[in-house]
Structure formats: structure tokens, C-alpha cells
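Sample intake sheet
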Amino acid sequence: MELGLYTFAEVTPDPRIGTTIAPEQRLHDLMEEIELADQLGLDIYAVGEHHRPDFAVSAPAVVLGAAAVRTKRIRLSSAVSVISSDDPVRVFQDFATIDLLSHGRAEIMAGRGSFTESFPLFGYDLNDYDELFAEKLDLLLKVRGAVRVTWSGTHRPPLRDLPVYPRPVQDPLPVWIAVGGNAGSAARAGALGLPMALAIIGGL
């Protein structure tokens, strides 16, 4: 059994004193939390992605890259990377870089997003919610599986025998499907033979 922690790096008011911590301070505290988790022997620390005023992390890969050079053994994961509204090639490159910095400790939890603020922010239509995830997950797995990739879809320009670098230490780089209560997402993880992370939240 493995034990770990995940956070959305909330910046909600402290119930003891009523003030809201600044994002700068929250990220500083988060680095200390990840370092402490590593020192205490926890197995994994995961950081979520949100694009809202009440959470400090919109770019988990940046935070995890900083954590990679301040830790020694703990695995570092997103929780989740909203690949539906992101570029899977860039997500892979970011986490391959974290894997290199951490000497093979990076993981991706790919999710559809239980909050949907990233879709209009990056120009995606919520009517394409599931189609976006299916297509972009397919591309992420193609990029993970081979250096040179040929791929085409509806929501992103095609790739025609293009190389994707850097390559991670781990081969393959671990990819989990993050599920927030949707049965179809759980079935997708099973059909693809991918591990599943189940969050106790409502799903769309």
C-alpha cells in the first residue's frame, strides 16, 4: 500500500483568523509541505489544476518542477491535468521534464475537469466536453508511446511523423485516468488498461 497527499493549493480564508493567505505565501507553504511529505516517507504528492481565484495553482507542472529539485524520493503527480483544454504534446513535454529533474518520479493524472473554467479560458466549447477528453487522451498516449508521432483529430492540428522531446526517464511515463464519479470515465480507464484515480467529487 502507498500513502500520499494531494492539494488544490486553496487560498480560502483561514477560519481561525479570518484572513485570506496570499498566493505567493500559499505557494511558498506548498513547497515546504511537499518537502516535509518527502522527509516523512510518504509515497506521492499530487497537485491539482484550477483557474479560479480561490486556488493558487493553475500550472501543476511548474509547481512540480520546483518540487522535483527540492525532494529526493516522493513521486510527483498532477491531480489533475485537465487535458481536455490543454495541448497533450505540451503536457507530455512538461511532465517528461519533471521526470528528468526528479530522476524518474513524475506521473500524470489526466482528467476531464470537474470544474469547467478552463474551457472558455482556452477557447473550447463545453458541448465538446467528452469528445475533447477522448481525443486528447488518445494523443497523449500516442506521444507517450513513441518518439515520432503521426496523429490526426478534430480539435487539434495533425502531427505527421514529428518527434516529441524530451523523453522521460520512465518508459512509459505513468498516466492515470482521474475519475470524479462518472461511470463512463471509469469504463474508459478499464478499456485502455490505465490505472484509475477516484476522487470523491461529483462528475459531469
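Comment: The chain has a mean pLDDT of 93. The first strand starts at residue 4 and ends at 7.
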